[in-house]
Amino acid sequence: xxRLLLILALVAIAFWVYTIVDCAVQPAARHRGVSKPAWMxxxxxxxxxxxILWFLIGRGRAGRPVVRRAPDDDPEFLGGLSxxxxxxxxxxIRRLEEELAQLDSxxxxxxxxxxxxxxxxxxxxxxxxxxxxxxGQRGAVG
Length: 142
Known about the structure:
Layout: H1 2-25, H2 36-45, H3 47-58, H4 75-80, H5 83-107
Helix pairs in contact: 1-2, 1-3, 2-3
């Protein structure tokens, strides 16, 4: 009889420790009934009965796993986008395209009388001409 009581006591202690650890590691969102600290107090102060209550009442179900998606694959996110945000983006794109077209037309403007830029390096030109900033300055050290 003493052996049976000793075995039951060891099983009860193992169950109590397992219950304390299980209650402690569960996220607070999965606790039902009362808050996580209250469940910890119940499980610690009422060892076997608290553990049974924890598994029957307090421990929430895992539910379905959370699936993480990229925003462009998430229908909830896409549904939350307003038509106004899309219209604003379309307007910005339209303005940028207009500015690009204006820049292109300005580059092709026939009224532009500037000579084309010469490539860098010595192309057999006059040795007196170049990119020297000290041209025409006497006594300048450069």
